[in-house]
Design brief:
The complex is a heterodimer. By secondary structure, chain A is α+β, with helices and mostly antiparallel strands. Chain A contains 19 helices and 28 strands. The two termini of chain A are about 35 Å apart. By secondary structure, chain B is of the alpha+beta class. Chain B contains five helices and five strands, in the order E-E-H-E-E-E-H-H-H-H. Chain B is globular. The interface between A and B is large, with 60 and 54 residues.
């Protein structure tokens, strides 16, 4: 290292708390990242899917003969072929019963549909060919005879008497119901309330639109019989397990490798049907097979988020103090109710429904409903944005009804720091939080009280000015708090840390490296973070807002354990007692002497020329990030054009490892939220059941002109 | 099949192509230049933006046969001869103008085209110049800042 600065100064600048430049970026800006479709193998075949144009239809026959006759076509698989080969359905266990108390019953999720398709875009055949063109030509040559069946895509239609059923044996379109709270106590609170407000809220379906479409490159190893799949995934281990189960393989017979991931936002959690089909084809044909999703396919089958309708009511006393919260939600979870799709709406979101407020009583009745639409899954916040939207809209409605300023009404109901730890009505315990302080800072940053004069200025320019205020509370960790990390200090001068959490743009390699620098005191260039290989380690992966919280903590613990273990080795090398060895900035020394040995030098002395630690550690429970966001917009009354003129927020996300990265996450998330507020919606045609927003020409995403500046602050004063 | 001869990143290239072959397919699959990404199938996302005779074009909306005799620059060709990052790439790193990085090559190439035509852009010109490029991670604010910084850096290197 050609540096004149002392090692400790050098290292410290790259430790946690600093806006270290991301170690991911030099590769990514140069175009040398390795996303899933960037990797090709010699002799690889190309797979494309044939997808149903009908939202609900019986498959009468599939004629593949013309497709198979096209030069270069190697195989065509239908659902029947997969079933005959023993490919299993994907399990979608539902932890909640139906509203009638019976166990939940939903259509089995097959890799390729066999007798019935249940949403427009469901795959019915896979074509494998020497070239993508041949595969596409063959797709057009397959003749499927469908019997068109009636379909439902909206909640109202799905719940109407005599509605077409998505899964006939269920008898109706209910999937599950969860009730939380105390209905009788809530009724009593509403009966004695001075003020009651009630809202009907629609949280429309939105698409994640990670810029990198999914893809799979599957390749078998003839000698070992193992199957490797390169995926674009947030959860390599879970995907491996699902794929292995479906293909009837032991878990260790399948390896999932993930390179750079071009955005996830929840929709790349878990295996998709497509992954199983590609894995099956590669194993059956004994050759590498690649499938790259087209954007249109991502809109058709990629897991979307939200899509629920709520009737929500708040009871307040004469002073504006909340007495009770009542929520009735129906969630459209699509044709195949996935476990995540149901749990997000019936449990995870509701955990934060009362948010940062003191709500003595809740009465929630939440139901999941099947429709002939693509399955819904996790998307950016997964249930929590839906929950926060309800309570914040109710706060605004209550402010109007009571005549109390919306900020004041919120402050009046906020939990106070001295109430921590606080168990909310869903049984979730907030460890710490100073919500009023965060809110007051947010209001000050936004100059809440100066709004009227800004509105007057806008009016003078012929514009209408409005504002929105929202506080939020997050639940983190995915209730998966254990994380395994391996640390490999090698003689060649690098510390390689493997973790089964998964990068997808959130900069966790940089943040982990900073945490390792904190412990090892070496320059950040000496630290290499490796992810995305189930042969090197498995874990829950990156979902449920957990990576830095659980994974980062595990990296820190593993690094500390490495130094402890190395101290014993250093004691041997220095012929001293371990208790007399101290570690500082890359070297061990005997306390009070100048006898020392470098960390990497010590590694070189070991028989394997490395110091290796396999560490599993656990964090104690969820954390509760929270914040206060204020947005102001100008509306042109002639055109309806909305201009986001101000966005200010103060956030308590705990200890900040890299402020630039954290602010980038908050701002990017805010723009996704603004996208839902202003332009995004997945639309199915009610009559035909067709997806009308199947391209980026039809599904409107925010562009560079939406927000010109953010004022985003982080308050780390709360433990 | 047609033989297309053109210049890519300063070097001569040729490819045997069907007439329907898109430029982006030739770049990625025949020439191994995988830095040019495919994010959609309707020419909306801009991930495949390259320079054609110095002008930004979407390589998914350009037929390979259209580039006969012309000059294409991809993200791989933007680096300095010494392998260092181009000032635009450097600006994206400094301003945290990327998260997942998938849209980034297209953003950088659009910026290169924009700044070549308009070396001192206003914010309006920047957001207009990036209208054809989608990003889902950053919220764009840091991308716009990256373009501002790149403009200053390039202006400084010219004078």
């Amino acid at each position: 290292m050609a540096s004149t600065a002392p090692a400790d100064v050098n290292a410290g600048r790259f430790g946690s708390g600093h806006s270290v430049r991301r170690i991911e970026d030099p590769t990514l800006v140069a175009g040398t990242g390795r996303y899933v479709d960037d990797v090709s193998l010699p002799g690889q075949l190309h797979l494309v899917m044939l997808r149903s144009p009908y939202p609900h239809a019986r498959i009468l026959s599939i004629d593949t003969s013309a497709a198979l006759a096209i030069p270069g076509v190697v195989a065509v698989y239908t659902g029947a072929d997969l079933v005959a080969a023993g490919v299993k359905t994907m399990p979608t266990p539902c932890p909640f019963p139906r509203p009638d108390g019976k166990p939940s019953a939903v259509a089995p999720l097959q890799a390729l549909a066999t007798d019935t398709v249940r949403f427009a875009g469901e795959a019915v055949a896979a074509i494998v060919a020497e070239t993508r063109d041949a595969a596409r030509d063959a797709r057009d040559a397959i003749a499927v005879d469908y019997e068109d069946l009636p379909s439902v895509v909206t909640l109202a239609d799905a719940l109407a008497d005599g509605a077409p059923r998505v899964w006939e044996p269920a008898g109706d379109n209910w999937v599950a119901q969860a009730k939380h709270g105390d209905a009788a106590a809530s009724d009593a609170a509403f009966a004695r309330a001075a003020h009651v407000v009630e809202l009907h809220l629609v949280n429309q379906r939105v698409a994640a639109v990670a810029m990198e479409p999914r893809g799979v490159l599957a390749y078998p190893d003839a000698e070992s019989g193992r199957l490797t799949l390169r995926l674009s995934s947030q959860m390599p281990s879970g995907s491996r397990d699902t794929i292995a189960d479906a293909l009837g393989l032991a878990k260790d017979q399948v390896r999932v490798v993930v390179g750079d991931v071009g955005g996830g936002f929840g929709m790349k959690t878990g295996a998709y049907q497509d992954d199983i089909v590609v894995g099956f084809a590669a194993r059956t044909l004994g050759r590498p097979v690649k499938w790259a999703a087209e954007r249109g396919e991502e809109f058709l089958v990629g897991r979307a988020g939200r899509d629920c309708e709520s009737r929500a009511a708040l009871a307040l006393d004469a002073d504006g103090k909340v007495l009770a919260l009542r929520i009735r939600t129906d969630a459209n979870v699509g044709a195949y109710a996935t476990t995540t799709g149901v749990v997000i709406q019936l449990l995870i979101g509701p955990w934060v429904s009362t948010s940062i407020y003191e709500v003595p009583v809740i009465d929630f009745d939440l139901r999941a409903v099947m429709t002939h639409t693509a399955p819904v899954g996790a998307y950016r916040g997964a249930g929590r944005p839906e929950a926060i939207y309800i309570i914040e809209r109710l706060m605004d409605a209550a402010a109007r009804k009571t005549g109390i300023d919306p900020a004041e009404l919120r402050l009046r109901n906020m939990l106070r720091p001295e109430q921590m730890p606080y168990k909310n009505p869903m049984g979730q315990t907030y460890d710490t939080g100073n919500f009023p302080s965060i809110a007051k800072q947010g209001l000050a940053l936004a100059d809440w009280s100066g709004f009227e004069s800004r509105a007057a200025q806008s009016k003078a320019r012929g514009k209408l000015r409005g504002r929105g205020l929202a506080t939020f509370l997050e639940w983190t960790g995915g209730n998966q708090f254990e994380e395994r990390v391996t640390v490999d200090v090698s003689a060649d001068g690098f510390i390689e840390i493997y973790t089964a959490t998964q990068a997808m743009g959130q900069g966790i390699a940089t943040s982990y490296a900073q945490l390792a620098v904190d412990v090892f005191g070496v320059p950040i260039e000496r630290v290499r973070i490796v992810q995305g290989d189930t042969d090197r380690g498995v874990g829950f992966g990156s979902a449920g807002s957990r990576s830095l919280f659980t994974g980062g903590s595990a990296v820190r613990v593993a690094s500390q354990r490495t130094i402890e273990q190395a101290k014993d080795l250093a004691a041997d090398a220095l012929e001293a007692s371990a208790k007399d060895i101290e570690y500082r900035e890359g070297s061990f020394s005997i306390v009070g002497t100048d006898r020392r040995i470098g960390l990497f030098e010590l590694a070189a002395k070991q028989s394997e020329r490395r110091v290796y630690v396999d560490s599993t550690s656990t964090v104690s429970g969820p954390t509760w990030p929270n914040g206060c966001h204020v947005c102001e917009v100008e509306v042109d009354p002639d055109t309806g054009e909305v201009d986001v003129v101000s966005y200010a927020s103060v956030n308590d996300v705990g200890r900040v490892v890299n402020p630039t990265i954290v602010v980038g996450q908050l701002d990017g998330g805010a723009v996704q939220g603004l996208g839902q507020a202003l332009c995004e919606q997945v639309v199915y045609d009610r009559e035909s059941g067709q997806l009308l927003t199947g391209t980026l020409s039809d599904y409107a995403l925010p562009r560079a002109d939406l927000v010109r500046a953010f004022r985003t602050e982080l308050d780390q004063s709360v433990p | 099949m047609t033989t297309v001869r053109f210049t890519v990143n300063g070097a001569p290239a040729s490819a045997e192509v069907e007439n329907r072959r898109l430029l982006v397919e030739v770049l990625r699959e025949q020439l191994g230049l995988t830095g040019t990404h495919v994010g959609c199938d309707t020419s909306q996302c801009g991930c495949c933006t390259v320079l054609l005779d110095g002008e930004p074009v979407k390589a998914c909306a350009t037929l390979a046969v259209q580039v006969e005799g012309r000059t294409v620059t991809t993200i791989e060709g933007l680096r300095a001869p010494d392998g260092g990052l181009h000032p635009i790439q450097q600006a994206f790193v400094e301003c945290h103008g990327l998260q997942c990085g998938f849209c980034t090559p297209g953003m950088v190439m659009s910026t290169a085209g924009l700044l070549a035509a308009c070396p001192k852009p206003t914010d309006e010109q920047i957001v207009h110049g990036l209208e054809g490029n989608l990003c889902r991670c950053t919220g764009y604010v840091n991308i716009v800042e990256s373009v501002r910084r790149a403009a200053v850096a390039l202006d400084g290197s010219r004078s």
